[in-house]
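Q: What does the assembly look like in three dimensions?
Context provided by user:
Components: two
Sequences:
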Amino acid sequence: MHPGDANYKHPDRPQEKITGRASGNNRIKQKSTTNSQFPSSSKANYLLPFDILGGRSHSEWYFYSMIILDGRVASKAIKEKLSNDVKVLVSKGERPPHLAAILVGKDPASEFYVSSKVKSCEETGFKSTLVKYEDVSEDDLIEKIVELNKDETVDGILVQLPLPRHISSKNIISAIDPEKDVDGFHPVNAGNLMLGNESYLPATPYGIMLLLEHYKLDIKGKHAVVIGRSNIVGRPISILLSNNTHPGNATVTLTHSQTADLGKICADADIIVAAIGKPGFVKAHMVKDGAIVIDVGINRVDDDSPKGYKITGDVDYENVAPKTSYITPVPGGVGLMTIAALLKNTLKSRLLRI
Amino acid sequence: MHPGDANYKHPDRPQEKITGRASGNNRIKQKSTTNSQFPSSSKANYLLPFDILGGRSHSEWYFYSMIILDGRVASKAIKEKLSNDVKVLVSKGERPPHLAAILVGKDPASEFYVSSKVKSCEETGFKSTLVKYEDVSEDDLIEKIVELNKDETVDGILVQLPLPRHISSKNIISAIDPEKDVDGFHPVNAGNLMLGNESYLPATPYGIMLLLEHYKLDIKGKHAVVIGRSNIVGRPISILLSNNTHPGNATVTLTHSQTADLGKICADADIIVAAIGKPGFVKAHMVKDGAIVIDVGINRVDDDSPKGYKITGDVDYENVAPKTSYITPVPGGVGLMTIAALLKNTLKSRLLRI
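A: Here is the predicted structure of the complete assembly.
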């Protein structure tokens, strides 16, 4: 049985290719069939009435296999579209979009993220400028931002976080012109997001929405549980999922460190968004059969590999994935979407500047 | 048994005065006792383990009576404090806070709200200016707002909503200086609310938080269900309840017109905030025994009274109230807190201007 809405289908996936998958402790037999009668209810109808089941009993019902929400596939599709848009722009004699990225310090993770963004700019025909400081004062950094704000050839400004302790992220973000704030962290953009107005959406939550859109997942009326209330992911994604948009219109519960009985709340969810920064935090018993699981975690965990570490998400993927209808891998999931979203914001800013 | 946390006590209410009240279909016997062993769990522990019950069985356990969260009492206390603060300010040779209210058109409800606000200003020693238009163009209204923005003797500007159709509320609100936006509707204030920064909180959600504070209700870890996702109440209160503040730190589910199984979600809630604008929408079966119910609705319902109507909330008060631990009446609840919150914002703006 399909766990949710009839629209929850991979666009490229033929209806006939239905395979068995784990459902709690029960393995369901593999069988090919078409299931056009899936009810479009917002509940995960694991106990459908007999008539909806077409006269078959529950034990005879069949499952879709788990589908990976592949950030590589979705971000590639978005970047190809962006690349074409830039070509059209340039063919009309306009300059390409230009992203200015600022990196302070030598944090290896930050260096990796910024260089990924710069590389993605190159791949899609965007211009990028990387401003690197070994160290810098808050005043000098603000001065640089003011300069970039005034520079009419710059469309987007991003300051890679976290910043060193002596610099207030809040002051830095507030200094960015909201119309160039392609990371969507400025209070004006946060406010417009909250109010459902046009804004630059923060890149990670926007990336998640783009992923849902790419896989044509209709989340209307579904119960989404967001784990983590950070300003960068948890809070904004909880708003975007519940706004009156498409995708959107989910019923959202935002959970956090003070939440009681998190496991029970998660186990009721049709959709789980894990953004808590704890490797393997979401265990199989916290996930309902057929749920959609979005893993935002990017955690570095020591291992015996030559690198000495591996990147893992906030979800115990190995045990959770077989229970889900859709799940994002880490790496290769939300992280790549974040960059695609950033580029989309930068192109939008470029087009608004013509 | 007390439905929630040991801290959930009216500050002025002696512990000994415990009276029976309705619990679902069962009436619990009245008995005086002190209950220092109430568990500080965030779940509504209606089925406590036997040992926590001190050896008594569930049927021997006792209930607090329902307590009215009285907006008259709480707003009076806040206004008395504001009044004193203004006296101190004036005694130092400073001018009192000054609220400028703008009313467009002749909607009786809007006229009533604005005149209540002006009257409250008078009562607390605030200066107020009422700018009334029978009709006005958007441009002329914006011009007036710009004038008030520049006027250094004005601390707060509020435009009574709704506005006539030919005027864009969004444009009008955006025209108000965020530092004088004591209604807290400007995107900058919305964004700072969302980000947990200092801001002018929108008056109704802020009023609800002040009411929780007045009655010293600790909502940390409780499950709050907000009904309605408006920018004026539902969305911001869902954020305030879940922010890492005190009161705050609740686990919040925001529900709306697309929510499936609303009754079931509400019936699990420790706290319900009804802000949907439908008279008597929240029925007894949707409310858990011992829940806290905040009724934001102000609905005009026709009746046989000389006035021809009565004001009712979004909650079926008569049937719901006996099940709750705390409930706001309508009128006399959240509405009065809204005005107190507005005055608090205006005083804050005045103090920041010195």
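Follow-up: Residues 1-64 of chain B have pLDDT under 50 and may be disordered.
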